[in-house]
Amino acid sequence: MIDDSALVRKTITDTLQMDPDIEVVGVANDPLIAMDKIPKLHPDVLTLDMEMPRMDGLTFLRQLKQENSPLPVVVISSLTQQGSKLALDAMEAGAKEVLAKPDGSSSIGALAGKLAFHIKAAARARRDLAPLPTTKLQPSLPSRPRAPAGMDRRLVVIGSSTGGVEALRYILPALPADLPPIAIVQHIPAYFSKAVAERINGLSAMEVREAADNDPLLPGVCLIAPGDYHMMIVKQDQYRVRLVQTPPVHHCRPAVDVLFRSAAAVAGAHTLGVVLTGMGRDGARGLGSIKEAGGCSLAQNEASSVIYGMPRAAVELGVVDRSVHLQAMPQAIVETLNTIKP
Fold first, then answer.
1. Fewest beta carbons within 10 Å, which of 54, 233, 314, 320?
2. Vertex 176 angle, CA 256 and 292, to 5°
């Protein structure tokens, strides 16, 4: 664990040691000290603050990447607007997860279950995956001609967790701008979702943004659930999103199952559900609801998943039409949409 605050180091240590499967083997108050300790302690996972003296977390991550270090890193950072952009840079530099350091309204102790879950996820993450190629805009991908205005009822819903930010950063820029609306739940902390949406929007032909309550879901628009809010689809004059803070599902808020079940209820057979990389079982039963309603389903395959937990759960439940390599997923989404009646 690397953090310049002695209080944070102690609190996180005490919190993690409540879990019988986790042992904190060492702490450091900056990356330079950590560099000396890592070869001696051989940790399975490293937690990292971003703003520290002598060397900041991003510089340290980039150095690890340059050295081809397989050590998984979980960033625990203050996710202000500026901090979120820094944390996103950290994920692009190789961090497996980003968690928000609690503000004055909460305590680090409140991170207990969530932190342990993400530490275990990082420990299980694949370390042999090659970096994703840079995605080029592909507006030429074949898509079905649009139905008359207001007549296309198709809807795409996507769920992801560990490794999902990078997967989405690959998939969305590769999709054409004229697709039916897309709604996404990525297990993500509050404040970080907006930075992720803005970064992907700058790469994509479609509009990608963080969802706000009552936003309409429109063709060519992708809405990402804000951290700490479940996102549901409702049907009024058109598809709209509802953001709620009901209890977490699978220890997650937002939860994929909440999105998928609501999509199945309002869009039924016009729904395409996609489960991407992530630890746990969130999304499997929701994908089952989509299949029961007559919709279609895709899952990321094991070979390209950082963690093949969520896709595996859906496959084992028998609710996946096709498992697809991440690099083939944009094409698979377009092809599958072409089989769904508008």
1. 54
2. 35
